[in-house]
Amino acid sequence: MGYLYENIHTDDVRDVPRYIFGNSNIGLLDVPPSLQRVTAYTTDTNNNDWVKDRLGRLATQVDATWYVTGWGEHALKAGVQADWTTNDADKGQKGNVVGLAWNRALLGRRGRYGYYTVTTNSVDATRGRSSSARPRAARQACSSRTRGRWAGA
């Protein structure tokens, strides 16, 4: 029998949008020098946040062997294994991620400065890509096996 429980969480992750420059905007049109950045510049190194990610697993296994004699020697083996898992998760990007494609076109169209993309989600529009799993009852997986060996008399 075995049991595992783990919970992952992070602290001090900023909840502001993260801007990523896919291309440099240095010297572009009328962008003020204080806002010009090089390619791959980002306003924060990471905004991934684990509010909680609780994982539990209980496993058990039972095996048995029966030896029988009569009309020869016989061995019958059987076993059962069961696992129960739970997961309660709330993790993902704490703020939206904005990709800036300066002086670039998307599908042949572009704005004055290029285009941008925003990564968000439908549950909380202030957060980027995220995933959550409500606490759920234990999910159960079972298996069994049998094996026999017979030797004639």
What do these coordinates show?
The chain has one domain (2-151). Helices cover 0% and strands 54% of the residues. It contains no helices and eight strands. It has strands at 2-7, 18-21, 48-69, 73-93, 97-102, 114-119, 130-133, 139-151. The radius of gyration is 29 Å and the shape is elongated. The mean pLDDT is 85.
For the termini, the CA-CA separation is 39 Å
The total beta strand count reads: 8
Our estimate of the beta-strand percent is: over 45%
Any idea how many domains? 1
| Total count of helical runs of at least 4 residues | 0
- What composes the largest sheet? 5 strands, antiparallel
The best one-word shape is: elongated
**Could you name the ranges where pLDDT drops below 50 across 5 or more consecutive residues?**
none
Radius of gyration: 29 Å
Return the string of H and E elements.
Answer: EEEEEEEE
Helix share bin: under 10%
- Which quaternary structure do these chains form? single chain
Mean pLDDT: 85
Q: Which structural class fits the helix and strand makeup? A: mainly beta
Secondary structure elements and pairings:
Elements: E1 2-7, E2 18-21, E3 48-69, E4 73-93, E5 97-102, E6 114-119, E7 130-133, E8 139-151
Parallel strand pairs: 2-5
Antiparallel strand pairs: 1-3, 3-4, 4-7, 4-8, 5-6
Please give a quick description of this structure:
This protein is an all-beta fold and 153 residues long.
